Amino acid sequence: MGGLAVACLLAACVVTTAARAQATAQAEAAHRRAELAHLPANAAQRLFGLERMPAPGPADAIGTYTRGCLEGAVQLPADGPDWEVMRPSRDRAWGHPALILFIERLAARAARFAGWPGLLVGDIAQPRGGPMLTGHESHNLGLEADIWLTPMPSRRLSRAARDEMPAIDLVQADGLAVDPATWRPADRSLLELAAKSPGVDRIFVNAAIKKALCREAGGDRAWLRRIRPWWGHMRHFHLRLACPAGDTACRNPVPPPPPGDGCGRQLAWWFAPARLHPPPSAPIKPPISLKSLPAACAVLVRNLR
Ligand SMILES: [Zn+2]
């Protein structure tokens, strides 16, 4: 088992393939074809990855962030007053209505209070949530979203530009610190605004970004507890909402972050050479069995089997 996988067991298991989060449409399509070529017909990634319509009914997040699904998803509109959806060819702008509303409000508040001209929103979830053919281990419940740390341009992006435009890297090549040429006070303001918002369980960022936040935060540091380091995440942050109160089948098996701001020794762990440069994750993921998801999730893709 590689170092990355071990750490995945120790901490909150999220995006092990975060480096691909901003892959262009061509690279993403090739990766998708490769996954489809090897996965068995009943693999959960295939069944959920090919589903194009949301499951009807009231919103319900079922299972866990890495083994779950979503009923009653809604789609974040491609354009809003304060946001644009990126990588539209992936069709991953679906989410729990609580998250979609959260993003719309965060975008408006970021424009008003955090110096952001608008947010570029990356992957949220598939129409019925569930495991994905490419990328994320999590994002199954429609309660997680990747928000780019690249400001929305002043002119609306074309669909092609949204599929191809690169995101800004905020971290130095050695991974030890943010890049002073790209890290801005507005990045800190946005992360603080998001972390202070009710309903947030955690936010994942690169350890170098967490280090910058630890250094730059003033006396009000309680929000830092919700900002957790993870590999990748140099160009976006991963927002995770807690299970909505009414979603009784939603589970978060990961305990809340330990008390404190998560700076100091907890953060230093991430800068050991073996963790800064872990072995790459397998390019092709093993199939996920539908049986490893709640039975209520298998029902959502029943017609495809
Ligand atoms: Zn993510």
Structure description:
The protein has 305 residues and is an alpha+beta fold. The protein has one domain: Muramoyl-pentapeptide Carboxypeptidase, domain 2. It has 10 helices and 11 strands. The chain has helices at 3-10, 25-38, 44-49, 97-113, 159-164, 185-195, 207-216, 265-268, 273-276, 295-300, and strands at residues 60-63, 68-71, 74-75, 79-80, 83-85, 94-95, 119-121, 144-148, 200-205, 227-229, 236-241. It has a 4-stranded mixed β-sheet. A hairpin with a 2-residue loop joins strand 4 and strand 5 (83-85). Helix 4 crosses helix 6. The protein is globular and about 55 Å long.
Quick structural summary:
The chain is α+β, with helices and mostly antiparallel strands and 305 residues long. It has helices spanning 3-10, 25-38, 44-49, 97-113, 159-164, 185-195, 207-216, 265-268, 273-276, 295-300, and strands at 60-63, 68-71, 74-75, 79-80, 83-85, 94-95, 119-121, 144-148, 200-205, 227-229, 236-241.
Keywords, separated by commas or semicolons:
alpha+beta; 305 residues; binds zinc ion; disordered N terminus
End-to-end gap: 32 Å
Task: Report the C-alpha radius of gyration, rounded.
Answer: 18 Å
**Which consecutive residue ranges, at least 5 long each, have pLDDT under 50?**
1-19
Number of strand segments: 11
Major sheet: 4 strands, mixed
How many helices? The count is: 10
What's the CATH first level? Alpha Beta
Q: What's the CATH architecture?
A: 2-Layer Sandwich
Give, in order, the helices and strands. HHHEEEEEEHEEHHEHEEHHH
Domain tally: 1
Biggest sheet strand line-up:
8-11-9-10
Small-molecule components bound:
zinc ion
- Structural class determined from secondary elements: alpha+beta
Strand content: 5-15%
- What CATH calls the topology is Muramoyl-pentapeptide Carboxypeptidase, domain 2
Q: Given the C-alpha coordinates, what overall shape results?
A: globular
